[in-house]
Amino acid sequence: MTDQSTNGRKIIATNRRAFRDYFILERIEAGLVLQGTEVKSLRAGRASMTDSYATVEDEEVFLLNLHIPPYESGNRYNHDPKRSRKLLLHKRQIHRLRGLITEKGLTVVPLSLYFLRGKAKVELAVAKGKRHYDKREALAKAEAKRELEREMRRR
After folding, report:
1. Which one in 51, 53, 117, 144 has a CA-CA gap of 20 to 30 Å to 82?
2. Which CATH number fits domain 3-130: 3.30.420.40, 1.20.1600.10, 3.30.540.10, 2.40.280.10?
3. Does residue 105 surpass a pLDDT of 80?
4. pLDDT digits (tens, 9 = 90+) for 68-88
5. What is the DSSP letter of 59?
6. Whole-angstrom Cα distance, residue 62 to residue 98?
């Protein structure tokens, strides 16, 4: 799923599930440390963000469970598809994330993976998990909005 958006981002993957399962409180852009064949695989538009999340360990932030499949034309030096990847953030951003994560129920999830001026970036979100009834409420609101738009088009 590769498309070009208007602000110079070449979007590789989006995490639509994050919007369904979490309340998004804050967004942060981070660089991504990659190995050689990972970049080629991303340029081909292949990545999956299902069940991925970020964690802070010893003044560093890592993205876990991001699946970047091996490059087809790669050789024996291909990368491990599910390895943890280091994120590039400023020290004050890392301290802020650590403070937010220690609050009850908050987590850091990736929203999208994209290239910006040739550099691989990931948009992170500080998020709070939705309860089952919150998800039902969000679905009901979306359905009501669709019905309203459908009715407006009919008239």
Report:
1. 117
2. 2.40.280.10
3. no
4. 888 877 677 777 778 899 999
5. T
6. 12
Which of 36, 27, 26, 44 lies closest to 115, judged by CA?
A: 44
**Closest Cα to residue 36, out of 92, 90, 8, 74?**
74
Q: Quickly count helices (H) and strands (E) in the chain.
A: 4, 8
Residue-wise pLDDT tens digits, 114-145:
999 889 999 999 998 888 777 788 888 889 99
Q: What does the block give as tokens for 39?
A: 């970049």
Tell me which residue has tokens 């009901």: 140
Using the structure block, give the residue that is written with the tokens 């040739």: 118
User: Which residue carries 């993976």 as its tokens?
Assistant: 113
For 119, counting Cβ atoms within 10 Å of its Cβ (0-12 exposed, 13-18 middle, 19+ buried), the class is exposed
Residue with tokens 């590789």: 12
